[in-house]
Design goal:
- This protein has about 200 residues and is mainly alpha-helical.
- Helix content is about 65%, strand content about 0%.
- The chain has one domain: Arp2/3 complex 21 kDa subunit ARPC3.
- The chain contains seven helices and no strands.
- Helix 4 (about 115-145) crosses helix 5.
């Protein structure tokens, strides 16, 4: 959650740019095709990390930068995709869902000290149901099939999504301990869990 100390620093622009690039790089490995379904990509992991590391505003900004670059035609989406057409295909809703998913992940993870359960909960909620809430209706419409069928088909992605949640949680906490400057000032200033007091 935003606080009075949650002011943007000059380096926040660099953080946003770095995470936009990270999400793009995670798409270079290309999608893992699943017959009849939306391809599995590693970019959702980048979306989760943008939120859990940068917080809701900066995480959403990083995803927003990526989406703008994709809209103007740069090949920043999985498998080198890009262009406005990407937003009107079967994956279009998921792309918009990334923006809100990063924001929700960041809002939950940074709502207090960066603990494993806050980060994990943020990554799980922002990275799965929020993104699917935007992606499934569009997938259903574009594919011309019932929403329930699209939701049922998407169950195949849950194991991979849960693995991404675990990775995002571990990577966020490891980075926080190893290199706190990667995080916004609000995450570093008075947001770490207090050390146990001696009896």
């Amino acid at each position: 959650m935003a606080t009075k100390t949650d002011r943007w620093e000059a380096r926040d622009l660099a953080r946003v740019a770095v995470f936009a690039a990270l999400i793009a790089v995670l798409g270079l490995m290309g999608p893992i095709p699943v017959p009849g379904l939306v391809p599995i990509t590693a970019q959702t992991l980048g979306v989760m990390l943008a939120g859990t590391i940068l917080g809701w505003k900066r995480g959403a900004a990083a995803v927003g930068v990526l989406l703008v670059l994709a809209a103007i035609g740069l090949p920043v989406l999985s498998g080198g995709g890009g262009g406005l057409g990407s937003f009107f295909g079967v994956t279009g809703g998921y792309l918009i869902g990334w923006l809100f998913g990063a924001a929700v992940a960041g809002a939950i993870a940074h709502s207090g000290p960066l603990t494993w359960w806050r980060v994990g909960l943020g990554a799980a909620i922002g990275g799965i149901p929020v993104i699917y809430a935007f992606g499934l209706p569009v997938q259903s419409i574009v594919a011309g099939q019932p929403l329930g069928l699209s939701a049922l088909q998407s169950l195949a992605f849950l194991p991979g999504d849960l693995i991404k949640v675990v990775l995002a949680t571990v990577l966020t906490l490891v980075l926080f301990r190893a290199y706190p400057p990667a995080f916004p000032a609000s995450a570093r200033r008075g947001r770490t869990a207090p050390a146990p007091q001696a009896a």
